[in-house]
Design brief:
Order of helices and strands: HHEEHHHEEH
Domain DUF7978: 4-192
Strand content: 5-15%
Number of domains: 1
Organism: Halomarina salina
Shape: elongated
Helix content: 55-70%
Transmembrane segments: 12-36, 101-124, 131-151, 171-192
Largest sheet: 4 strands, antiparallel
Keywords: Membrane, Transmembrane, Transmembrane helix
Radius of gyration: 19 Å
Structural class: alpha+beta
Distance between the termini: 8 Å
Number of helices: 6
Pfam families: DUF7978
C-alpha cells in the first residue's frame, strides 16, 4: 500500500480512535455496573448508615461503581479526614467475592474490542495507521476518565471525603490503558487487513 493511501486513512483512524476511547470507557463502566452494582449497594449499606449518622450525603451506587472501575485500572480510592489519617483502598483487591478479580479484565477488553471494531470500520490497512489510530483512543478515554474522577469525589460528612486521585486516574486509566490496548488493537487490525 502506498504512503499516500496510508496517510489518507490516518486522520479518520485518529478521529475514530478518539470516539472509540469514550465508547470503550462507557462500555467498560456499564459492564462493571451490571456485574457489581448489587454487591456495591450491599457494601454501601453500612457505610451509608455511618454517613447518615454524621450528617453526610450517602454515597450513590454510580459513584462507588466508578471507583470500582477505576480500581480495575489500578487506581486506588483515597479517604481523607477520617480518624487515623488518610487511607487508600483498592475495592477490587479487598473484595470477598471470588470473581471480583475478573473485573480487572474489563478495561483492557473493552478498549481492545471497541478500538479494533473502530479501526476495522474506518478501514485501516497497515500496521502503523492502525497503531496510531488505535492509540488515539487515549483522547476519548482520557477525557471520560478525568471527568469521572472529578465528579465521583464525594463528601461523606464530618470533613471526610472519598475520591480517586485525579493524577493517578489520568495517568494510569486515562493514558496508559488506552495507549497500550488501543495501539495493540489498531495494529492487529492493520496487520490483518494489510
Amino acid at each position: 500500500m502506498s504512503n499516500a493511501t496510508s496517510n489518507s486513512r490516518l486522520g479518520p483512524a485518529a478521529v475514530s480512535g478518539a470516539v472509540a476511547g469514550a465508547v470503550a470507557w462507557v462500555l467498560g463502566y456499564a459492564v462493571t455496573y451490571l456485574a457489581a452494582s448489587e454487591r456495591v449497594q450491599d457494601a454501601l449499606t453500612d457505610l451509608n448508615a455511618f454517613v447518615g449518622l454524621v450528617g453526610g450525603n450517602e454515597v450513590p451506587t454510580w459513584k462507588a461503581v466508578g471507583w470500582l472501575y477505576l480500581n480495575a485500572h489500578m487506581v486506588s480510592v483515597r479517604v481523607l479526614g477520617a480518624p487515623g489519617g488518610p487511607r487508600t483502598y483498592d475495592l477490587l483487591a479487598e473484595s470477598e467475592s471470588g470473581n471480583a478479580a475478573l473485573l480487572y479484565l474489563v478495561p483492557p477488553l473493552a478498549i481492545l474490542l471497541v478500538t479494533a471494531a473502530a479501526m476495522w470500520l474506518v478501514g485501516v490497512r497497515d500496521l502503523v495507521s492502525g497503531a496510531i489510530g488505535g492509540a488515539s483512543a487515549v483522547v476519548g478515554y482520557g477525557v471520560v476518565t478525568a471527568a469521572v474522577a472529578i465528579v465521583s469525589r464525594h463528601a461523606l460528612g464530618a470533613g471526610i471525603e472519598a475520591f480517586s486521585p485525579l493524577p493517578n486516574a489520568v495517568v494510569l486509566a486515562g493514558v496508559v490503558y488506552p495507549v497500550v490496548c488501543g495501539s495493540v488493537a489498531g495494529a492487529l487490525v492493520g496487520l490483518v487487513r494489510s
